Automatic annotation (TrEMBL):
Membrane topology (UniProt): Multi-pass membrane protein
Pfam families recorded: E1-E2_ATPase, Hydrolase
The protein's name in its UniProt record: HAD-IC family P-type ATPase
Organism encoding this protein: Saccharothrix mutabilis subsp. mutabilis
Residue span(s) of domain P-type ATPase A: 98-197
Transmembrane segments: 40-62, 68-86, 215-235, 247-275, 604-623, 629-647, 659-676, 696-714, 721-748, 754-776
Subcellular location, record wording: Cell membrane
Length: 790
């Protein structure tokens, strides 16, 4: 602590300014996205860009500038990647500011909210239920404060904190309130980055990213082996008269094996999906999350804030002694640990004349709170079955069960003459009243649940409320698998054994009286059974389950700790956005798979041609400029268009396996067909030279690749047919106009060569069609089922 002692009124403006000038702030440089420099570096400085730059220089040395046009394509791709990511960064950063956590600091005797980065050393910070601790410090006051430190220590049980106890950043307030002096801020804090500190434990697993990285690794290894052999073969082949021709042939083979646009395309698809969702008020805090949600097969829902609006209101009071009861409820409404229940009571019960002398704050684990009144004993407010677990025969408690069956939230108010501030219930409680609260069911909840049911996504409603209340709400919105409110399971009866719990979860869908620890156990049990789990929630009791789930979805009006650990935040708290997120994820993963097929087919036929020419000592049958033509018209342009197109195909596991199953045989067919075209024209025109073989091979690969594109673009519609026709027209124009075909693309076009190339190209196309019909049938069936469900 500094030389100037912190008073109960907190720091003064001068003291804050002094600490800011000294750099003693909580700013840690955490970013919601990469910096501009990082974006440029990540798109420019890559191993493949380095390789292509080297090949580009070598081609320029040969004297044929046209063969170096692939370098301009790489520059264009990189520029597009940088510009699009910068645009996405601006959009996402603006939304992240709206969702950024804030802290309550006491300065000059007044409580004010500031950004977390504006907290300074020695600040007096106020804590309330649902807050995430923003710095390390020492408590100066505690009113029933309980903190969950599991993000830091792994221990799930809340820890009671008193004055002079230490608190650490990254932990979560689950009950009570208090104040502490910040002694460790910024880099000096135990957890140096607040929301990021929580999120670092849950890195989103992306099948697309993992599959793409594997492909890049394998391709890189193949290039290390094949590259030297290819270069050697081009110098040794009888067709090579100069070193320039040998270098050109080797460069063509290597350029063809480089998947220059695949990583860029994957990143762009994620970013554009995130921007698209941002327009629907959904903040994506980790880009691959849009893909992962497409793989989700189980969604765990918290009732409050998800199926209902979460803004509970007072409905009615059932009691025989209204005066004392109203005074006690007025004290409860004005308790320091304000929550949704106390806020609802505050609208009805105001201006207490009794004096509060202590109490027990509400805890989602206990599900009750208490207030001590001077001369009037202790009053406990909580869930009937938790406050009176063994008194079901009481008429008031029986009435509570009936009301809960109507979908209302019911609390019991009980009293004891003793002054009680312990976290265990007093033994001599007497029920005094029932407090009935009402929640508004979301108008769009039923449609959203119906969507998930049609998509084959299982739903589990897990809530801390009374099972019959939760069951009634679930029935009213049409949750599949529950026919009556009494079908809901009381979580207090759930087994602790994970296997036994998983068995119950397979049979039941609605659970009430679920503790925060049980929510985590439910998520874990589902994951052990192989399910991909999404968890939605808004309260601090949901935070740990959101962290453990494959995808955590937080409501924008939820607790700061909940938003911090979630990968997705619904900024306007509308559960109805989830189908949009699922659809966006499916679009991304399905379209990237299509594009990956295109890129990998080129890599495979380039590898096949390289191996063939190494084995036969022939010249590589394509020049770099001709590969640039083929790549632009059959892969680059259509790949980007298809990656951004609508696609409602359901997620099918096995991205990498499917891509390889299609690309390897298809690429082999095209590569061998190109080689056959080269051999055929050599037999027909022995004096035709390299130009004749390259021309026929180019025509063969163009036709077979466009056929492959038509196969992957199915089902065809108007704009896809126009795209294919336009690309075919561009290729035909280049072949027909000598200034383009000969002058730029180094083709020696004659009618005979076009005929030979067309015959072999269409024959290869038919073989590609056969491969596609066998390999792509499951994908087509999945697309048809998905289209029927919309």
């Amino acid at each position: 602590m500094s030389d100037t002692l912190v008073t109960a009124g907190g720091l003064t403006r001068a003291q804050v300014a002094e600490r800011v000038a000294a750099g003693r702030t909580n700013a840690v440089g955490a970013r919601t996205s990469r910096s501009t420099a990082q974006i440029v570096r990540a798109n420019v400085v890559t191993p493949f860009n380095g390789l292509l730059a080297t090949l580009f220089v070598l081609v320029l040395l040969t004297g044929h500038w046209q063969n170096g046009l692939f370098g301009l394509v790489i520059v264009a791709n990189t520029a597009i990647g940088v510009v699009q990511e910068l645009r996405a960064k601006r959009t996402l950063d603006r939304l992240a500011v709206l969702n950024a956590p804030r802290a309550r600091v006491v300065r000059e005797g007044r409580v004010a909210e500031v950004e977390v980065a504006e907290v300074v050393a020695d600040d007096l910070i106020e804590l309330r239920t649902g807050d995430q601790v923003v710095a390390d410090g020492t408590l100066t006051a505690s009113d029933g404060l309980e903190i969950d430190e599991s993000l830091l220590t792994g221990e799930s049980d809340p820890v009671a904190k008193d004055s002079d106890d230490e608190v650490r950043s990254g932990s979560i307030v689950v009950a009570g309130s208090g104040r502490f002096v910040a002694t460790g801020v910024g880099a000096d804090a135990y957890a140096t980055r607040l929301a990021a500190e929580a999120r670092r434990f849950t890195v989103v697993r992306s099948e697309l990213v993992q599959g793409t990285n594997k492909l890049l690794k394998w391709i890189s290894l193949l290039m290390l082996v094949v590259g030297p052999l290819l270069l050697w073969s081009q110098f040794e082949t009888p067709d090579t008269d100069t070193w320039q021709e040998a270098v050109t042939g080797a460069v063509a083979g290597l350029v063809g094996m480089v998947p220059e646009g695949l990583v860029l395309l994957t990143s762009l698809a994620f970013m554009l999906a995130a921007v698209s969702l941002a327009r629907r008020q959904t903040l994506v805090q980790e880009l691959p999350a849009v893909e992962v949600l497409a793989r989700v097969d189980t969604v765990c829902l918290d009732k409050t804030g998800t199926l209902t609006h979460g803004d509970i209101v007072f409905d009615r009071l059932i009691t025989e002694d209204e005066h004392d009861v109203r005074e006690a409820l007025a004290l409860c409404a004005n308790a320091p640990d304000a929550n949704a229940t106390s806020a609802a009571l505050a609208d009805e019960f105001t201006d207490p004349t009794w004096r509060r002398t202590g109490g027990v704050p509400f805890s989602s684990a206990r599900k009750w709170s208490a207030v001590c009144a001077d001369g009037h004993g202790t009053w406990v407010l909580g869930a009937p079955e938790m406050v009176f677990p063994d008194s079901a025969d009481d008429p008031l408690l029986r009435e509570a069960a009936d009301i809960a069956g109507e979908g209302k939230r019911v609390l019991v108010l009980a009293s004891t003459p003793a002054h009680h501030t312990d976290t265990t219930l007093p033994a001599d409680l007497t029920p005094r009243a029932l407090v009935v609260l009402a929640e508004r069911i979301r108008d769009d909840a039923a449609d959203t649940l119906r969507y998930f049911a049609e998509q084959g996504v299982a739903l589990k409603v897990i809530s801390g409320d009374n099972p019959r209340t939760v069951g009634a709400v679930a029935v009213s919105v049409g949750v599949p698998g529950i026919g009556h409110a009494t079908d809901a399971v009381d979580a207090r009866t759930l087994p602790e054994d994970p296997d036994a719990l998983a068995d119950v979860l397979e049979r039941k869908v609605v659970f009430g009286r679920v503790t925060p620890q049980q929510k985590r156990a439910i998520v874990g049990a589902l994951q052990r059974e192989g399910h991909v789990v999404a968890m939605t929630g808004d309260g601090v009791n949901d935070a740990m389950a959101l962290k453990d789930a494959d995808i955590g979805v937080a409501m924008g009006n939820g607790a700061a700790a909940t938003r911090a650990v979630a990968q997705l935040v619904l900024l306007d708290s509308r559960f109805a956005h989830l189908p949009d997120v699922v659809a966006e994820g499916r679009r991304v993963i399905a379209n990237i798979e299509r594009a990956a097929n295109l890129f990998l087919v080129k890599n495979v036929y380039s590898l096949v041609l390289a191996l063939v020419v190494v084995a036969t000592a022939l010249a590589y049958p394509l020049a770099p400029i001709q590969l640039t033509l083929i790549s632009a018209t059959t892969i680059g342009i259509p790949g980007f268009v298809l990656a951004l197109a609508p696609n409602r195909r359901r997620y099918v596991p096995g991205f990498l396996r499917r891509v390889l199953r299609f690309a390897v045989p298809t690429g082999a067919v095209i590569g061998l067909a190109a080689y056959a075209g080269d051999l055929a024209v050599r037999g027909l025109e022995p004096a035709g030279g390299r130009g004749a073989g390259q021309t026929v091979a180019t025509v063969v690969v163009l036709i077979a690749s466009l056929w492959t594109l038509s196969l992957l673009a199915r089902p065809l519609n108007g704009w896809k047919i126009a795209l294919l026709a336009g690309l075919a027209g561009v290729a035909a124009l280049i072949l027909a106009v000598p200034a383009l075909g000969t002058g730029i693309f180094l083709l020696a076009v004659t009618p005979q060569r076009l005929l030979v190339g067309a015959v072999i190209g269409f024959a290869a196309g038919l073989l590609v069609e056969l491969v596609g019909r066998v390999v792509l049938r499951p994908v087509r069936e999945s697309e048809a089922r998905s289209a029927e469900s919309f």
